[in-house]
Amino acid sequence: MQRIAPSSVDVANDAAVVAALRRGDENAFTALVTAYSGALLRLAQDFVRTRAVAEEVVQETWLAVLTGIDRFEGRSSLKTWLFRILVNKAKTRGVREARILPFSSLELDDDERVVPEERFRDADDMWPGHWATPPAPLDTIPEGRLLAREARTRIAEALETLPESQRIVVTLRDVAGWDAEEVCEALGLSDVNQRVLLHRGRGKLRAALESYLEET
Amino acid sequence: MATPEKTDLTCREVTELVTEYLEGAMSPRDRLDFERHLVWCSWCRDYLEHVRTTIELTGKPDYFEPPSPLREQLLEAFRDWKRKSA
Questions:
Q1: Which of A12, A15, A144, B65 sits between 20 and 30 A of B41, alpha carbons compared?
Q2: Which residue of chain B has the CA closest to A51?
Q3: Could B73 and A59 be called an inter-chain contact, meaning their C-beta atoms sit closer than 8 Å?
Q4: How large is the C-alpha radius of gyration of chain B?
Q5: What is the pTM of this model?
Q6: Pairing between strand B64-65 and A2-3?
Q7: ipTM value for the complex
Q8: How confident is the model at residue B1 (pLDDT cuts 50, 70, 90)?
Q9: How far does the CA of residue A69 sit from the closest CA of chain B (Å)?
């Protein structure tokens, strides 16, 4: 799929988007579809066996959004609700296909660190374990670099390369905006494992952002 | 006998505790140690800002053109839904 320019519709403004959808505004619908279908499709593919089935799940999700929008009460954000519909549908399809999620046999490597060891001082230093190569303060970085589309794109690319279990958790927490409890329940994860997966996944996204910011 | 002072956290430890901190999953004692480290360590404050910014950027929409059959089907479904609900 091709990345395209952001829509002029502010998809984060739930009240405006919901009102526009209810009055049948096609632009609002298209904006939502272009903003979230990529992430929905990626996530659906983690639950079902083929890309074709994942596309069907995404399509069913959007149809459910249309038929349900009049009943949407705004107790969660529109985005959170949208991903909830997708996960329910994708899980149902996944179960039917006997697709096994990576969480049933989750093995967490205790030695995995979010920041490489060489960025900290050695044991024989006066300050062992403290930064040798600290992160650059964000206020020294030209504002445009953080606001640039490229910053968001780099993070999205890093998200795609995460191990599946980390990608699912980070997508539900940080893209979809679910809370920890909902993620644990949907995936059958313990609090601790959810947090470890989130931590490691976010760590890699942060590293991707940092390497983007270091480029001149 | 005096209780020995708990050793201060290292920056390496702070980077591994960041999520626990942001999730509000720390004991009050651990939280205090974490925040005390942040008071004197601007590098770790910068690190925490990196993490917060990453989370914020991850949550922003990422615009894609959906594959064309899907896009057509969705638009058709939308117009159909609009007719019915009118």
A1: A144
A2: B67
A3: yes
A4: 24
A5: 0.93
A6: antiparallel
A7: 0.94
A8: very low
A9: 11
